[in-house]
Structures
1.
Amino acid sequence: MNEVDKLFSAPLAQVSDFVFDADVARVFPDMIKRSVPGYPTIIESIGLIAGQYARPHSLIYDLGSSLGAATQAMRRHVRVPDCRIIAVDSSAAMTERCQEYLQAQDAMVEELTPAEVMQADILELPLKSCSVVVLNFTLQFVAPDKRLELLEAIYTALLPGGVLILSEKLRFDDPNTQRSLENMHYAFKRANGYSELEIAQKRSAIEKVMLPDTLETHLARLQEAGFSHSHSWFQSLNFCSIMAHK
C-alpha cells in the first residue's frame, strides 16, 4: 500500500545521497505526484504517444521504469497486435513493487498489452529491435559521460519511424530563468504540503545524484546520437518531455 512521503520530515544529522530503496518505493507515488508538476499529464500522454508509434510485432522499452506508471499507461493505449512492453529498473525494491502493480492492473483491466519487469542496469542491457523507448525522468540519473552512449544504443535499436520519449528536469543557463523556475518549483512543493525542512533535505539528498541538463543540451545530444528530429512536447515549470524521432 502506498504511503505519504515523510522521508525528509524529521531533521537528519547527515543527509545521505538519494537512492531508490524500499523506503522510497513505498512512498514513491505520493512523492512524484507532489514533486513533479505535470506528472499525471506526462504519464497519460506517454500512453497516447506509444499508441501512435507502436508497431505490430515489436517491443517497447520503459527504461528506468520505477513503479511502472508509464508502462501501465502504455498497456492501456497500445492496441497493435503482438506488441510487448519491457519495464527495466536497476532497483530491486522498485521492480518488485512494479510487478505487483502490473499484476493488480491485470486483475482489473482486460486485453492489456503484455508487459514484463526486469531488474537490470540499462547501461548494460542489450536492447533488441523496438518501436518505442521511454526514458521518463531517468537520463538525469545517468552519469553525464554515459548519456550519449545510452542514446546511441537506443537509436540503434529503434525501428525506422520509431520514437524515444525523454522526460527530464531542466536547468537553465540564464540565472534569472533558473532562479525564477526553481523558486516556482519550491512553491509547487509547498502547495503540496512539503515543509521547508523537507524541501531543503530532499534537495541536499538529490543534488549529487540527479544532474539535469539544459533543453539545448538534450536536443544537441539527441541529434549527435542520430535522431532525425527532436522537439519538446510538454513543459511545466522546470520539467519537460521531448519526442525524438528516428
Note: Residues 90 and 100 are 16 Å apart (CA to CA).
2.
Amino acid sequence: MAKHVAVLMGGWSSERPVSLNSGKGCADALEVAGYRVTRVDVQRDVAEVLARLKPDVAFNALHGPFGEDGCIQGVLEILKIPYTHSGVLASALAMNKARAKDVMAAAGIPIAESVLMHRLEVAKAHPMTPPYVVKPVAEGSSFGVLIVREGALHPPQQLFAEDWAFGDTVMVERFIGGRELTCGVMGDEALDIIELVTADGGWYDYDAKYSDNGARHVIPAPLLPDVYQSIRNLSVRAHRALGCRGISRADFRYDDRPDGTGRLVCLEVNTQPGMTATSLVPDMARHAGMSFPELVSWMVEDASCGR
C-alpha cells in the first residue's frame, strides 16, 4: 500500500501565499510519484486534524513562524509522525538569524558584522555607517528587509510605523556588495550553486523570488573553482553546525567587484527552502538530474522524528 503523506501548507504567517503555492506543487508531484496525499491547510487545530488523519509522513511545506521555527516540528514529535526537513532545535535555531550567525561563526563560517536592536532605536539614528541592512530577526522571504544605501541621510522611517508586523527586535547587518549566491544541501552533500541575477538589477526581494521572470537562476554559478568549492564546503558545514537534516539552503554574498572587498559571507541558512515553480532547490535538483517528483519522494523517504 502506498504511503499516506499529509502535505502541510498555508498556516497564518506572512508567507502563507508562498506556502500554499509550495504545498500544491509538492502534493501534485507526490501524487505523480504514487503516494496517497492529503492536503492540509494548517490552522490552529492542526494537532487534532493530524491525529485523526494518522498519516505515515508529514511533508512540511509551511514557511515562516510556526512552520519553520520548531513549533510544528514539536507538534509532529508529540504525535510521533515522521516529518520532512529539520527537527525542532535546528529549525528554531536557523529561524533566528542572530543566533544562527553565532553558531556559524563558532564553526568558522564567515559572516557579516551585525547587531540586534529595537526597531525604534534603529529608526532614530544610524546604528552603523551606511550601507547596512535592517532585517526582522525571524522572518523569511525577505519580508521587512530594508537596505540603507551609502550616503543615506537617516535610517528607514518605516520602522516607526504602527502597523510594522515583523517584531520589535531587528538585526542591523553590514551590507556586503557584489554577487548573490545560494547553495543547497541534500542529506550531507552539497548541490550546485546558483547565482541570482534580478531582472531590474536590484536585490533579490520578494517580487524577484516569486514573480515570473523576476530573477535569472544562473547554474552553475560562474565562479573560480576554488571559490565554488569553498561555498559548497561552507554550505555543508553550516548545515551540520546548525544540526539540519534533509534539505537546507545557504545564502551567500561574494564581493568580487574590481573595487570590492573580496569578501565572501554566509547570510543565513534556510531549513524550509521554497518549493514553488520558481524556487531554487528544485532548480538545483534538476541540474543534478533529479525530477521534481523524485526530489519530493527523496524528502518523504528521508523523513523522521527525534533528530
Note: The chain has ten helices and twelve strands.
3.
Amino acid sequence: MNPTIELLKSHRSIRKFTDQPVSRELLVTLIEAGQAAASSSHVQAYSIIHVKSPDNRKKIAELAGGQGYVATCGAFLVFCADMKRPTEAAENSGGRVVRGMTEQLLVASVDTALMAQNVAIAAESEGLGICYIGGIRNNPQAVSDLLGLPSHVYPVFGMCLGYPAHEPDVKPRLPVEAILKEDTYSDDREQVEAYDAAMRTYYGQRKGGNKDATWSQSLTPLFDTKLRAHMREFLIERGFEMK
C-alpha cells in the first residue's frame, strides 16, 4: 500500500487528547486542505465555526450528550451546511434565486461532509487524531443559537482535533463483498453474518473494555431511540424547506 492508502485504512476515532494545542497555522492549513475537496458546481456550501470559548465548548459537550472530549480536545470545529452565502451571492449578481429546495439541502450537506473528511485526513497526516461529533444534532437549535447561525445555515456535525493520548484499535469494516455490488444490487446477508461474528470478537478483545455485541445489535438504537425526530422541523425553520 502507498502511504496515503495506509493512512486512510488506519483511521480510528480519538477521544483522549494531550494538552498540546493545535496551532492556528496548522488549523488554517487543514481548512485549506478541506477546501480542496470536490464541491457540487463549485458552490462550496459550508462554513466552519472554530469554537474557542471554553464555556461554549462545555455547553456544546453537554448539548451533544455529555461528550466531555469536546471541551478537552486541542481544537473543536463545527461544520455547517451553508446555503446563505451562495444564494446571496447569486442574488447580488442579479440572479433570480429560489430558496428552500431539497436539492439545496442535499448539496450543502454533501459539500460539508466532503470538506470535513478532507480536513480529517489532513489532520491525521499531521499526527493529529479526530472524532466526529454527530451529537450536536441532539440539540441543533441550541447549538445554532450559541454559535449565532443565521437562516439557511445548519450545524451538520462537530469535530474534535488534537494530539492523541491513547491508541485505540482500528475497528473492522464490513467486507468489501458486502458493499461492492456488480451491475445490480445483491443480497449481502451472508457477509453481514460473518461481519457480526468478527465484530463480536473485536468488541471482546479491544483495548479499554469488552462489549458482548454484534454490529447488527449495535445498530438498534439508531433506528429505535436515536431518531432525532426534531430535525425535519428544525431544518424547515432554518430555511431548508425541502420543497
Note: The mean pLDDT is 96.
